[in-house]
Amino acid sequence: MLRRIGLILIVLPLSLVAILLAVANRQAVAVNLDPFAGSYGIEVPLFLLVFGSLILGVVLGGVAVWAGQLRYRRAARRARRDARDAEREAGELRERMAAMTDPDGRGVPGVAAGYAITDRRNAA
To answer: How far apart are CA 95 and CA 91, in angstroms?
Structure first.
């Protein structure tokens, strides 16, 4: 609901301004593509020139931002790959530990008496 209100309050007035700009600036203007001779040019309505320039600016700005964030996307891919590898390794270690413990969970078989693995935090 809030999104719809925002759409109405922002997009609707901007659309009206764009329509009024297009209607008021229908006259043709010459756009020369050759700055020296001036022989290569076209005539387009002014509103098309303005809107085309805005669209081109948005596209070029988006490409510049996308190119500037390449290193962050590369680092994110690397971090995802490292996390996936760490999860896989942790799963393998869990399976190995489960295979090493007794069915009743008393410890690792084959460990000599008196040499059991203890928690050092609780040892005083």
So the answer is: 6
